[in-house]
Amino acid sequence: MRKIFVLIVSLSFILAGCASPQVAQFVQLPDATRLGITAVVIAVVGLAFAWIGGQLPWTVPFLSKYKEEISLTLAAALIGLIENALPSAYPEISILVVELVLAVLTAVGLFKILAKAGVKGFRGG
Predict the structure, then answer these.
(1) E-assigned strands of 1-125?
(2) I need a labelling partner for 35 at 20 to 30 A (CA). Which of 29, 61, 80, 107 fits?
(3) H-type helices in 56-118, by residue range?
(4) Could you report the per-residue pLDDT of 6-18, keeping only the tens digit for each?
């Protein structure tokens, strides 16, 4: 009985070693794109915390204390979600789509900042 057990365990290790390796099925974003996503998340979380602080003033000490940690954690989670959601069959196109979305968000944010500053040609209304 012991010889059969040793044989079965040995065969299972041999078969596991001969199995094809699992390839990661996600697209790794470039560092510049990761930084862009992190910047957008930090800005959105900062705006959300400012709004919450305006509505509930007693939350300001807590939110200001942990704003960076929460922002970076959410950014890392969002980057992981995006990398796993992008199709790995066309990684270049997937990365370009993410970069296009970041560029549009950046342009909209820049236009809002310039309109708020009263720059000619960017005034709202």
Answers:
(1) none
(2) 61
(3) 60-85, 91-117
(4) 666 665 666 555 6
Residue 13 belongs to some domain of the structure: no
Contact by Cβ (8 Å): 82, 36: no
Tokens found for residue 47: 């705006």
pLDDT at 16: 59
Domain residues for the domain of 82 are 26-117
What tokens were used for 48? 């959300």
> Based on the structure, what is the number of domains in the chain?
1
Query: CA 95 to CA 45: how far, in whole Å?
Result: 24
**In sequence order, what are the residues at sequence separation of 6 or more whose Cβ sits closer than 8 angstroms to the Cβ of residue 109?**
43
DSSP class of residue 59 equals G
Q: What is the pLDDT of residues 58-67, one digit of tens each?
A: 988 888 888 8
C-alpha closest to that of 37 among 112, 86, 113, 106: 106
The verdict on residue 124 lying in a domain is no
